[in-house]
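Field notebook, page 475. I keep forgetting to write these up properly, so this time I am using the form the group agreed on. The chain and the ligand, thiamine diphosphate, are recorded exactly as supplied. Prediction of the bound pose follows.
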Amino acid sequence: MPKKLVLERPKGFYEKFERKPGDKSNTHYCPGCGHGVIHKLIAEAIEDLGIQDRVIMVSPVGCSVFVYYYFKTGNIQVAHGRAPAVATALKRANPKAIVVSYQGDGDLAAIGGNNILQAANRGEHITVFFVNNAIYGMTGGQMAPTTLPGMKTTTTPYGRDEDNEGPPMKVSELLATLDGPTYIERTAVWDNKSIAKTRMAIRKALQCQMDGKGFSMVETLAACPSGWKVDPKNQYEWMLENMQPFFPLGVKKDIRDERESWHRTPRDNSAEEVSEALDLNVPDPKLFPSEYKKDSYRNPSIKLAGFGGQGILSAGAMLANSAMEQGYHSSWIPSYGPEMRGGTAYCFVNISDQEIGSPTVSHPDVLMAFNRPSLEKFEADVKTGGLLMYDSTIIDVEPTRTDIEVLAVPATKIADGLGNTRMANTVMTGAYLAQTGILSREAMEQTIPKALKRKNLVDANYLALKAGMEFVENQ
Ligand SMILES: Cc1ncc(C[n+]2csc(CCOP(=O)(O)OP(=O)(O)O)c2C)c(N)n1
Ligand code: SF4
């Protein structure tokens, strides 16, 4: 009986591509684009290897940004060039997942050059499909690190000049020199034979990860007729003539047989071990009990904002540290302006009796504004029912919100009375403690000497803390 040929979409793809209304059967790629062929080979491999329920595709920025509309797998879309870093995290958090980073040459070799280098060097257990079409396709055909000598692009209108722009980057050869990777092969999709080899290489790379053998990558030379301004009918000849000489095909590294199968196990150190290694005090939750003034003051997310040099970041760090001393979970993230003095500075602090999901704060429960631009910029972000504290010595406007609690603290004036206006941050911190009761003065007093580089300022800061607290208590 003759074999029946069945043409159907691989199960690794969605049945319908729901990217936009209308035609649900086609991808967004231009006619002749290499991405479509490579997608199909990967989708077939996922189906045949039986790993669809374990695959997480990491899609890049570039023409293949919409990978997640096509692959019926786990999907995550990431910032330009950062796929190897995100893939690293996904794999380390889910060692049983098969994590695939799909990247173009602008994404992988230009903006993400260091990302791929470090991930390969660490021997991350991920699989990278690197589509080398020698150009930035999505943005209209600029030079990529892999652009060929003499090739005209919008940024090399006279052709890539090796004296000026350097020669094309051979990423596979480069990564193959590292100890980390296990399997690296360069293939192409310019005729049936090369497509068959790419099919095999894709399967080997995925199998390498399934076997726990470490980092695998397949670089595939692919067409971008739109970027190259080449008629799709002639693209294969063009590739053979122009790409092949610079990017020799073949296996660049393959030590799968020599490598033991191994899996990275996430570190699972106890709180005591971490505290000992980092020389931290093990917090005793009973040491300084909180006396919340209101239930809404529990578990605050706080934004402190002002000019660089006002001690915004150190006030935030002191709050987060003393929360830790008191047995809370806490987080602190600084944000620096480019200037050392006088630029903007703000930080996010979370204090919680629960684990903290995300350290960033877009809508704070508490805003501490230390200058007028910060008040004007961030007042609107405070959650309804939240608390806005501002330094009324230097902010000469009043907040306008009526659905939040507002506390004007003449922090700079109080600090000036104590001999140093730069302690306004500690005054404000004291006011916050007294207003909310969330942290004890004792916990804060333990933190101050650790936070201050100049030890002669410790006593003055104790006074500033006390003065801030008394200001609120005497209201
Ligand atoms: C941070 C950042 N920088 C620049 C861009 C603009 N940008 C979008 S796609 C792209 C190049 C993509 O080229 P490549 O990785 O070769 O993929 P292709 O489009 O050829 O598939 C650039 C520079 C961006 N989106 N984000
Ligand atoms: S611009 Fe190039 S890479 Fe992008 S879809 Fe079109 S042919 Fe493919």
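OBSERVATIONS:
- Residues 29-30, 33, 35, 63, 133, 137-138, 224-227 surround iron/sulfur cluster (ligand 2) (CB under 6 Å).
- The mean pLDDT is 93.
FOLLOW-UP: compare against the apo run.
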